Amino acid sequence: MSWGHDSFQLTEWLINYSGGFVRRGLPGTVISFVAGWSGIQANYLIIVFSFLCYGILVFWFLHRATRKFPAILILSCVVLGFPAYQESIVRKDCLGLLFLLLCLSIKHSRLPRHFSIPTINLIAIAAILSHEAFAFYGLPALIIFGHRNESPVTFHGILKRSLALLPAVLCFLCVTRMHGTPEIAQAVNDSWLPLWKVIDPTNPNLEVPAASIQALGWSPEKGLSLGLTLLTSGIYQPAAWIILFAVSFGLIVLFIGRDTERDDASIMDSRIRVSALLLMQLIFISPLFLLGYDYGRWLFFWVASSIMLHTKEIDAPLWTRSAVTALFQKTRAEHILSRLPAKDWYLLFFGIPVCWNIREFLISNPVGRHLHILWSWF
Fold it and tell me: Strand, helix or coil at 13?
């Protein structure tokens, strides 16, 4: 409840249109209106709504995704445990995934096309105006991937879907162009000065934009330089992130179908399908690695969206699945996976550290975090 002016989590929600059109400004505008109408502090509204979004997402995954994936994988740091362990529930990540889930549900419903297409565009636009990352893990999936019961995706089909979602694409281009300036960041910060003074009245720097609001004034060149600096700062950090992504990939492929009563051939088919989705989604979100350094959040978007797509019976194009099948055969992956048991305890030692130091590594996983809590009691 003390998060405020200097919190990246909270200020990401409070970006609004006080200084003009800007990226990520829709939720802040709505929150400002609701806070003024209800008299409830904006930070309280944000915290409650963030946990509500997270709770809905957890409920859906446990209700639907556990038909294909073990519940312990869903609740581990590989998927839904990440926001909880990294204190990022109070961010827009879960909201964006709920927007994707809503788009997928409408897309494959029995609603007439003349109603479903405009509705999907409106939802996708709302998602992009909330956080532009949706254009990387959401829009390509809606355009390129198809339902398992549909005919194979063709170039004509992709072009047709692209034209159908053109309003959402144009919205993303608009957000990219009008992403923000230092003047807009100052206006947004000024609009929340009364809130800052309530949360932290002793802070002498409240009039200076900070955290996510300050980031509105960053140029694309600065965002690119930050990402490149981290990627080129030596072999350690890039290698550590590559290993984390590879281990996440391996755990998902290993655990899929473990608790279902299916034959080995059916489980192997699921592994191929989910691997194809993971590889394609990784390609789609790859520009985010250059535009920002919140790699843990990009990993969350990647994993959660891929599992969501597979749960909704969405498939990557046939050529992708064929390539994965050939790779599995060449590397004898089926033989290796059949001999490697998917044990729950693997997940107790997997975590995603916030910072690259020994302490963060030790407390980023469930075992380390709970031992840290016990130690703090003595």
Answer: helix
The DSSP secondary-structure symbol of 147 reads: E
Mean pLDDT of the chain: 91
pLDDT tens digits along 38-79 = 999 999 999 999 999 999 999 999 999 999 999 999 999 999
Q: Please list the residues that pair with 147 across neighbouring strands.
A: 314
- φ/ψ of 314, rounded to 5, equals -90, 140
**Secondary structure (DSSP) of 203-271:** -TTTTS--HHHHGGG--HHHHHHHHHHHHTS-SHHHHHHHHHHHHHHHHHHHHTTTTS---HHHHHHHH
Is 246 among the domain residues? yes
List C-alpha distances in Å: 249 to 108, 242, 271, 308, 329.
27, 11, 11, 15, 18
Rounded to the nearest 10°, the torsion over CA 244, 246, 249, 252 is -60
Tell whether 234 is covered by a domain.
Answer: yes
Domain with 239, as residue range(s), is: 219-342
| pTM of the predicted protein model | 0.94
**Count helices and strands in the chain by DSSP H and E runs:** 24, 2
Q: What is the largest CA-CA distance in the chain?
A: 65
What is the rounded CA–CA span in Å between residue 248 and residue 32? 38
- The verdict on residue 251 lying in a domain is yes
Residue 151 has pLDDT above 80, yes or no: no
For residue 276, being part of any structural domain is answered with yes
pLDDT reported for residue 257: 86
Domain count, the chain: 1
Between 225 and 338, the more confident residue is 338
